[in-house]
Amino acid sequence: MTPAESMARDARIPDNAARCPCGSGDVFGGCCGPLLRGAPAPTAERLMRSRYTAFALHDTEYLRASWHPSTRPAEVDLDPDLVWRRLLIVERVGGGPFDREGVVEFEAFWREGDERGSLRERSRFVRDDTRWLYLDGRIG
């Protein structure tokens, strides 16, 4: 990451007292903030929420770090004009603190200029020792 990219990323990070972009209702400093700074997610849903927040903040470094090595892309390219607006959790299967696998289905709403839409994905997660990682997802 270049110094300019690093400064742009830091400018997008919410204040710890601001509402978290993931829509949990908690503040950023008590929700996704610690995860984006390296704390492990306690559940698959929390990891998924933090990944949504990383997409909203254009934090490609976190997205790659939270991706399972077997499916992780060499780089993550994000559209700078795409704005993620809201996250809705549709279903959770497993993914608790004592599970090894979990599935979280979600719908994420976006805006790009005058266009609006949503992305629905059924994401699979695996726990590797104490860390949840995103494995893959099926869009639909």
Please explain how this structure is put together.
This protein is of the alpha+beta class and 140 residues long. Helix content is 25%, strand content 34%. The protein is built from four helices and four strands, in the order ααααββββ. A four-stranded antiparallel β-sheet has the order 1-2-3-4, with helices on one face. A hairpin with a 6-residue loop joins strand 1 and strand 2 (101-112). It starts with a helix and ends with a strand.
Can you describe this structure in just a few lines?
The protein has 4 helices and 4 strands; from the N terminus they run ααααββββ. By secondary structure, it is of the alpha+beta class.
Helix count from the secondary structure assignment: 4
Note the main sheet: 4 strands, antiparallel
SS elements, strand count: 4
Task: Estimate the mean pLDDT confidence.
Answer: 92
Extract low-pLDDT stretches. Answer: 1-9
Q: Which structural class do the helices and strands define?
A: alpha+beta
Which strand order does the major sheet show? 1-2-3-4
The helix/strand series, from N terminus to C terminus, equals HHHHEEEE
